[in-house]
Amino acid sequence: MGDLQSSPAARELEEERHRLLADLERERNQLLRNIETCRIRDIERPFIGEWSLKDIVGHVATWEAEVVLALRQLREGRRPAILDFDRAHLDEWNQEHVERKRDLNFWCVLEQLRGGRRRLLDEIAQVSDEDLADEGSVHRRLVRSVADHDREHWHQIAAHLAGMLGARHTGFVSVPEEASQDT
């Protein structure tokens, strides 16, 4: 029998892991580029709707932390709470978590975003290639939801910077919606 690690199937799974990680990196880099393009005054003042740039950064960081927790729960053999999130309360939940970060300075919130990505990558490193590559796996949907969430928000920021009324919708409405599809 041949070594499983060198089989075409194993290489394909590893390549899918690399594609998923590359998507995460590409979407986060674009989000950070768009954040860096904003003016200092946009940090604290309403920027998109009622949310400032700091609010948006904090929101993205909060949902990424929820995905890190969900991956940890899966690793421990538990059902992630995010899969049972009551989407009827999504706006309220988002606003409550944005309010929690309002007293922090922008650089602290931005560091939470960066630290959250490091924790996410640490959790992903513990997920098997099979779980990341399987289209129906919760692991994959969770990781995909983070990249899609970054994309959704960098599109909104780009549209605002370009003077457009809004950005085209790029996917699911929310992280928990995407994570819990088909569960």
Provide the fold topology.
Blueprint (H helix, E strand, L loop, with lengths): L7 H30 L15 H23 L14 H12 L4 H20 L3 H5 L4 H24 L13 H5 L4
Helix pairs in contact: 1-6, 2-3, 2-4, 2-6
CATH topology-level name: Four Helix Bundle (Hemerythrin (Met), subunit A)
Instruction: Kindly report the oligomeric state of this protein.
Output: single chain
Overall helicity: 55-70%
Strand content: under 5%
What's the CATH first level?
Mainly Alpha
C-alpha end-to-end distance: 36 Å
Point out poorly predicted stretches. Answer: none
CATH superfamily: dinb family like domain
Under the CATH scheme, the architecture is Up-down Bundle
Strand/helix succession: HHHHHHH
* Whole-number mean pLDDT: 90
> Based on helices, strands and strand pairing, what is the structural class?
mainly alpha
Radius of gyration: 17 Å
Biggest pleated sheet? none
Total beta-strand segments: 0
> How many helices?
7
Overall outline: globular
Tally of domains: 1
Task: Describe this protein's structure.
By secondary structure, the protein is mainly α. The protein has a single domain, classed as dinb family like domain (Four Helix Bundle (Hemerythrin (Met), subunit A), Up-down Bundle), CATH 1.20.120. It is built from 7 helices and no strands. It starts with 7 loop residues before the first helix and ends with a helix.
